[in-house]
Specification:
It is a single chain. The strands form three sheets. This protein has a five-stranded mixed β-sheet with strand order 4-5-6-10-7. A three-stranded antiparallel β-sheet has the order 1-3-2. By secondary structure, the chain is an alpha+beta fold. About 50% of the residues lie in helices and about 10% in strands.
């Protein structure tokens, strides 16, 4: 809107000319908004601006189609009962079955609960291999062509806006500033991760389960999760199936809210929605802070046909306040997950990484609920994209702390808390396979940067393979068309590195908060006041310094790689 831009620009010039005092957040808003206008081509000719608008609309449509092709994918494999060895009877009984030529076949789908259960626990390699291939073909072949179109359109857009590449344009107003800084950052982590991963491989090679082999000191990609799970179970007494029995969904939710109540001073009141929303399984709570209503939290937790297959938080309505700090627009926040549904005989039991995922996404939700700003554009998670994961990743760290694990665990049959020896093993071994995880994240981050370098009609297959080269040289061969199911490539674009970038700050803040106590409301209030409540109204570097009373440190992050 050129008229709006002109008015805002003239207003700001007059404000400075007349020495009118604006608040820091108002100044920041105007400066960021004017930069955004310029970056979107507002000063270009009408012809160029119309072209920019057309490209943006095409990218949006293609991105929706890319996501739809992943979420609506119905790939599956059919197997015989003997192909399901290692999986528990309850899981097998929950599977759909078909009869063909007097033979019963079980259907394994590529939804998250099914896939991760099979890939970690099924002792039959051909079953793991077949399901791994189908899982990594989600969105293929349609998304290959769609991604190429998005790459070309984004490159054209960046050139119209006077940037060398879309990656340069995408990172221009982020914390990292440019792709070169990101590459240096990723290489620093990669070098340290490679040293750690050598130790991890030796551990796994010395403890290979029966019928699993390494080939030239490397593993098949469908074997790695199974090998790690077997090692944890047999050598560390970390049986994830057993541990999940201590995390029935209803109690975990209750205790999660209890933590937020103590640390953030929040109160959650579940309400009956009487099937007035999009599905009967939804849970909705009214959220209060110091007896003031601040918003609604909606939980959509179970998989269903055509539903988004990953986990995420969506801020449906941002929280806004007036000059007297009264909330004039409460937040409406949605958390989406895909957990195993309860059965007639058993409640929904969350695996430990599902609990961590839930903490993560609820961390975004808390940011949306507590990030109440005067300007809606800055509300909640409307921060720099390479900072947005910090609050949620900080809360993930709580999931290895004894007091927190004791509080939220409650065996669905005995009501006992997680035993001390298991908690000690969780804490002691939390970074055991961190190198493997980080190298995988670096590969995805490099891919998201490299496909948005300057140029069109790129060889996506080669870029995917090259981005995973370090992983393939050390650990295993990556999936051939895995980028077709890489949902973040459309919304995060070249900024996927943000998960690792913000993790540095998350670990530093957690380390600071832990010294005061993870249920200490005083430090919780300070963290809310200095970080969360500001939303995007202040530069993240300033938010961090305000809370820490110093510059952020990388020490905690890199210490875990030792």
């Amino acid at each position: 809107n050129k008229k709006l831009y002109t008015i805002l620009k003239e207003y700001y010039e007059n404000v400075k000319k007349c020495n009118i005092k604006l608040s820091k957040s108002q100044e920041y808003f105007i400066e960021e908004t004017l930069k955004g206008y310029k970056k979107s081509g507002i000063e270009k000719s009408d012809q160029v601006r119309n072209k920019i608008k057309e490209i943006a609309q095409n990218i949006s449509s293609l991105s929706l189609e890319f996501s739809k092709n992943i979420n609506s994918n119905n790939r599956n494999i059919k197997v015989k009962i003997e192909d399901l060895k290692g999986l528990d009877k309850e899981f097998i009984d929950s599977l759909n079955k078909i009869e063909e030529n007097s033979q019963t076949y079980y259907i394994l789908t590529v939804d998250y609960p099914t896939y991760f259960k099979v890939i970690e626990e099924c002792s039959i390699e051909k079953t793991r291999q077949s399901l791994w291939k189908e899982f990594n073909l989600r969105g293929y072949p349609e998304n290959k062509d769609i991604l190429n179109k998005i790459i070309n359109l984004r490159d054209e857009l960046s050139k119209l806006l006077d940037f060398n590449s879309y990656a340069d344009m995408d990172l221009d107003d982020e914390m990292a500033k440019n792709p070169d800084n990101v590459i240096k950052f990723l290489k620093t982590i990669e070098n340290k991760a490679k040293e750690k991963i050598k130790k991890e491989i030796n551990i796994l090679k010395d403890n290979l389960p029966t019928f699993v082999r390494s080939i030239n000191n490397k593993f098949n990609p469908w074997d790695i999760a199974y090998i790690i799970n077997e090692y944890k179970k047999n050598n560390l007494s970390l049986d994830e199936n057993l541990i999940s029995q201590y995390f029935p969904l209803e109690n975990t939710l209750k205790q999660l809210f209890n933590i937020y109540q103590q640390f953030f001073g929040l109160k959650f009141e579940e309400i009956d929605i009487e099937n007035n929303l999009w599905h009967k399984d939804l849970k909705v709570s009214k959220v209060y802070k110091q007896d003031k209503f601040i918003g609604f939290l909606i939980l959509d937790l179970f998989p269903r046909e055509n539903k988004f297959t990953h986990a995420c938080q969506v801020s449906l309505i941002p929280s806004v306040k007036d000059n007297k700090n009264n909330i004039i627009c409460p937040a409406v926040v949605l958390v989406i997950a895909n957990f195993t549904k309860p059965t007639n005989n058993k409640p929904a039991l969350l695996r430990r990484k599902e609990v961590t995922t839930f903490f993560h996404e609820c961390g975004h939700a808390i940011h949306s609920l507590l990030g109440t700003t005067k300007l809606a554009a800055f509300s909640g998670t409307s921060v720099k994209r390479d900072f947005v994961e910090m609050p949620s990743q900080m809360l993930e760290e709580w999931m290895t702390e004894k007091d927190i694990l004791k509080l939220i665990s409650n065996h669905y049959k005995t009501n006992e808390h997680l035993p001390d020896n298991i908690i000690e093993n969780i804490k002691k071994n939390k970074n055991l396979f961190l190198g493997t995880f980080l190298l995988g994240q670096i590969s995805y981050a490099l891919f998201s940067l490299n496909i948005f370098n300057s140029g069109i009609n790129k060889d996506i297959d080669k870029i995917w393979k090259d981005s995973h080269k370090s992983l393939e040289n050390i650990l295993y061969k990556t999936s051939e068309y895995g980028y077709c199911s890489f949902g973040h490539i459309t919304d995060y674009a070249s900024k996927y590195y943000g998960y690792l970038w913000s993790s540095i700050f998350a670990k530093d803040l957690f380390d600071t908060i832990k010294k005061h106590g993870l249920l200490n409301n005083q430090i919780g209030e300070l963290y809310t006041k200095k970080v969360l409540s500001k939303g995007g109204s202040k530069d993240p570097n300033e938010l961090l310094k305000d809370f820490l009373s110093r510059e952020p440190s990388t020490e905690t992050f890199f210490k875990e790689l030792e």
